[in-house]
Design a protein that fits this description.
332 residues, alpha/beta, 8-stranded parallel β-barrel, 13 helices
Length: 332
């Protein structure tokens, strides 16, 4: 289950809060955008694009112009959910869905009949269940939505389900058991910014404690690996194959370094066209963050928060040997 952190709940200093969400290993940034532009308009997306987290937009609009769609179709914006009830021309959903570059869906309040999903199933990739009033932070979760989620899952198992509104760690536990794909959390995450990592952990791991990093770890045979003499093209090829944004540089089972997509960008800027002549050993990070196999996932989150560092992919070591890796964006 993925976590999308809503910035609406924090009320101020949105950019700083987005950075805290990033460090706490939230998966996406959720932005409620009203046609009025208060508190956010599409022009404000630049505030969050420096963050590198995927942007998840909830659009509460009466209509979308081509200029609106152009602004939506920009780097970093991956998920777009359009509020069904506020849209004046419901028939416009098909045309809008074809123009949107990201993953498009509709948001539905608790009172809207689910026949709306039937009517639009060929034009949406996900549905956002609004379990409280759209755009109102801190409202209570409407429990009738548990049945609505099950109805959608039973009829359309391939349709991704997002839930927003009043989601805390206890609601998240129930939603996790229902196999909800994404939960949006606002007020709950804002309750204790100093321990934001702990709140994120509770949302992701359904209030469980002492989960060892090895429980959901990718084992060595599943890892994207190359040797120190691998070329730039070798690294890019392996990174594209694995789709993990990371390649581990090894000598046997000995971890020599790590190359992330960020390392790739920095290497290209430093070496230019000469990057194609460089070996992995010349641009890898020789001192990556690692975790021992006897540690817990909660310790991982706490460690990242203390270091003020965003790392999604963490090698797991045992007696100096690489045994696997934790990908913080793989569900439990």
């Amino acid at each position: 289950m993925y976590i999308s952190g809503s910035v609406l709940a924090v009320k101020e200093n949105y950019r700083h809060y987005a950075e805290l969400l990033k460090i706490a290993c939230v998966d996406y940034i959720h932005i409620d955008i009203f046609q009025s532009g208060i508190p956010f308009s599409l022009k404000d997306l630049a505030l969050f694009q420096e963050n590198d987290l995927v942007l998840d937009l909830h659009l509460i609009y009466e209509s979308l112009s081509d200029e609106d769609i152009r602004m939506i179709n920009q780097p970093g914006v991956k998920y777009i959910n359009l509020q069904y009830e506020t849209l004046k021309e419901k028939s416009a959903i098909r045309e809008i869905s074809r123009k949107i570059a990201g993953s498009f869906g509709i948001a539905l309040t608790s009172d809207t009949p689910l026949s709306v999903v039937d009517e639009n199933i060929n034009d949406i990739s996900q549905v956002l269940i609004m379990a409280s009033q759209p755009g109102v932070s801190g409202a209570a979760f409407d429990e009738t939505n548990y049945e609505r989620i099950q109805w959608i899952q039973n009829k359309y198992p391939a349709l991704r389900i997002w839930v927003d509104g009043g989601v805390d760690n206890f609601i998240a536990e129930k939603l996790g058991k229902l196999k909800t794909d994404v939960i949006v959390s606002g007020s709950y995450l804002c309750n204790d910014l100093k321990n934001l990592y702990s709140l994120t952990y509770k949302l992701k791991y359904l209030n469980e404690k002492n989960i060892r990093v090895t429980r959901n770890m990718l084992h060595f045979s599943e890892l994207p690996v190359e040797e120190e003499n691998a070329t730039f093209v070798d690294i890019i090829t392996e990174m594209n194959r694995s789709r993990m944004g990371t390649v581990l540089i090894v000598r046997g089972r000995e971890l020599k370094g790590i190359i992330t997509d960020g390392d790739i960008r920095r290497a290209v800027m430093e070496y230019g066209k000469d990057i194609f002549e460089k070996k992995a050993s010349e641009f890898m990070n020789r001192y990556p963050l690692v975790i021992e196999s006897d540690r817990t996932m909660e310790e991982v989150f706490e460690m990242l928060t203390k270091k003020q560092k965003r790392t999604d992919f963490i090698p797991v070591m045992e007696d100096g040997t690489l045994v696997g890796a934790v990908d913080l964006h793989i569900g439990r």
